[in-house]
Amino acid sequence: MTDWTTTGAELATAVGTLVLGAATFASVRSANRTARTAERSLLEGLRPLLVTSRLQDSPEKVGFADQHWVRVDGGHGTVEVTDEVIYLTMALRNIGRGMAVLHGWHADRGATSSERPDHANVDGFRRLTRDLYIPPGDLGFWQGALRDRTEPTFAQVRTMAEADEILSLELLYGDLAGGQRAITRFALLPHDVEGQRVWLASVSRHWHLDRRAPR
């Protein structure tokens, strides 16, 4: 004969185990979700985001290794071509919450986002020879120099500058811990002010390299 007392006890134990398992699963899933949210919040607090500075921002004084000095006004860049060196600068602002550490750069002929929707290959970026930091919510600058007259980029940038063509600059940077790498595409647009050529800076697109893009 069936021992209904034993069967009932076993059934109650099984139901209790099932309920406990479901509760444990829900608790673990909730904890994982909370951990992911906390991680995203932490990373967001470290994420830098570079744009051009404003026209009314203070100018930046930029020095190069060969003691060449450049003044770059807010919202502008500079392109100086000599027989031996091409000096490039741009005034920047970090609108992100984390310290921006600049890693490298890539120069090319100006193009719209539809003409060139993707950024340049990261392996082709030029590494900066000095560390450049831009604090969150603060101003800073980028600088680069072309010193090898035999390389194609030197001739290309010189020709573009002399022809008053738009120069596209992509900057590679990340946070203070070396993560959250991003690429931002800027453009330097030649403009005449009282007979003097100046280069207005603009920003067009951002890419995240260590996580999914925002679009």
What does this protein structure show overall?
It is a single chain. The protein is an alpha+beta fold and 215 residues long. The protein contains two helices and eleven strands; from the N terminus they run H-E-E-E-E-E-E-E-E-H-E-E-E. The chain has helices at residues 4-46, 152-162; strands at residues 50-52, 60-63, 69-72, 76-81, 86-94, 100-109, 126-134, 139-146, 167-174, 182-193, 196-208. The strands form two sheets. Strands 1, 4, 5, 6, 7, 8, 9, 10 and 11 form a nine-stranded antiparallel β-sheet that branches. A two-stranded antiparallel sheet has the order 2-3. Strand 4 (76-81) and strand 5 (86-94) form a beta hairpin. The protein is elongated, with a radius of gyration of 27 Å. The protein starts with a helix and ends in a 7-residue tail after the last strand.
